[in-house]
Amino acid sequence: MSAIAKVFVISGPSGAGKGTIMELVCARLGRLVKSVAAATRTPRPGEQDGREYHFLSREAFQRSVAAGEFLESVQYNGEHYGTLRSEVEDKLAAGDDVVLEIELEGARAVRAAMPGAVALFIAPPTMAVLGERLRGRGTECDDEIACRLEIAATELAAAHEFDYVIVNDDAERAAAEVAAIIEDRRRGS
Ligand code: 5GP
Fold first, then answer.
1. What contacts 181, CB < 8 A, 6 or more positions away?
2. In sequence order, what are the beta bridge partners of 166?
3. How far is it, in rounded angstroms, from Cα 108 to Cα 32?
4. pTM for this entry
5. Among 22, 47, 66, 99, which is least packed by CB within 10 angstroms?
6. What is the pLDDT of residue 1?
């Protein structure tokens, strides 16, 4: 592992499988931890405050924005999401590599602020598969899924901006590919 901890930005459309893949990767590799983002959306069943997200009211989120606590923050589908500086800085200071699972605008902002960050894009095999996955997980209503698919088309068009594009045709295979990339970058290649 290199002496300086690294930031890995993982982006890609909602439903592409970023969370599943990174859970597998973090379990496989040591010293790689997920930054817990702040969000104003309602928690899904089973989600816990401080684990999936720091769930904030809009007012609390705006206070954190005003206080300069975010490395980046965006509006996505009517809700606010943001990466807290403290989440990233504390983990890097502890010597862990940090994973940011964020959408396209946030990924662009982090790369501008931290040019050393390594950016990976997780793509679904096709838009049809993405639609099936979003419907299959059953956590969003039809309107919400339609909005997410619209955003996904814009995100897919920007895949070439990333250092790596990984197609999630199979979560285990994609996780192995991501883990290999991270190990490579840790060796400094
Ligand atoms: P979801 O509501 O499905 O949890 O997240 C919606 C989208 O917001 C996903 O693409 C997710 O990766 C992204 N996201 C989650 N946290 C952040 C964040 O802190 N910053 C940005 N820019 N995007 C985020």
1. 118, 120, 164, 166
2. 122
3. 21
4. 0.95
5. 66
6. 43
Which of 140, 88, 150, 149 shows the shortest CA–CA distance to 116?
88
Retrieve residue 165's tokens: 């594009």
**What SS3 class is residue 42?**
coil
Q: What span, in angstroms and rounded, lies between the C-alpha atoms of 79 and 164?
A: 28
Measuring from each residue's beta carbon to the nearest atom of ligand 1, which residues come in under 6 Å? 14, 18, 37, 39, 41, 72, 74, 76, 81-83, 101-103, 105-106
Going by C-alpha positions, the residue among 11, 20, 10 that lies closest to residue 170 is 20
Query: Under a CB-based contact definition with an 8 Å cutoff, are residues 118 and 9 in contact?
Result: yes
Ligand 1 atom with minimal separation from the 35 CA:
19
Cβ pair 106, 151 in contact under 8 A: no
Q: pLDDT digits over 48-104, tens only?
A: 999 999 999 999 999 999 999 999 999 999 999 999 999 999 999 999 999 999 999
